[in-house]
């Protein structure tokens, strides 16, 4: 009898925990809104970084990174998921980045792998500071992930590219999809990083 009571208690607590987790997952985006996804950048224009890390996903990211490269903020560029069309080394070279300045990371399939695999390159090269470039709507998850993975071992700043994501003028269907997807991924990443 005591065993049955204990099992019922465990089932009930598990169910309550699930309901709380589900409620938090639904309420957090509603309370914080889509604007929360867009973190502030921390680019220091007076600083020279050992490398700019460009996350794959859009041509605008590479364009922004090459502009920063030509402003003299770094002499090295790490292209994550460099097999993707928008971030291939040839595109960076066409924008005036010397091939000798480019480090390719061809394997990343997620922001988590962008961080872990670029960190390996940074450590192999003895680089101590990086400027990470991604899109504004992807910035909160990027900062959370890179700050955790790099763990103050390498100094990291961020520069974010403006995108078509602008929830201030009402949410389009695409912006709703991006918001939902980013909040789900933030939750998954938070849990994954917590377990490491």
Order of helices and strands: HEHEHEHEHEH
Largest beta-sheet details = 5 strands, parallel
Task: Please tally the β strands and state the result.
Answer: 5
Residue runs with pLDDT of under 50 for 5 or more positions: none
Biggest sheet strand line-up: 3-2-1-4-5
Q: What general outline do the C-alpha atoms trace?
A: globular
**Could you tell me how far the N terminus lies from the C terminus, measured between alpha carbons in angstroms?**
39 Å
Keywords, separated by commas or semicolons:
alpha/beta, 13% strand, 5 strands, 51% helix, 196 residues, five-stranded parallel beta sheet, globular, 6 helices
Fold and architecture overview:
By secondary structure, this protein is an alpha/beta fold. It is built from 6 helices and 5 strands; from the N terminus they run H-E-H-E-H-E-H-E-H-E-H. The protein has a 5-stranded parallel sheet, sandwiched between helices. Helix 3 links the parallel strand 2 and strand 3. Helix 4 packs across helix 5 and helix 5 packs parallel to helix 6. The chain is globular.
Task: Reconstruct the topology from this structure.
Elements: H1 2-32, E1 51-54, H2 59-70, E2 77-80, H3 89-94, E3 102-105, H4 111-125, E4 129-135, H5 139-150, E5 155-161, H6 173-195
Parallel strand pairs: 1-2, 1-4, 2-3, 4-5
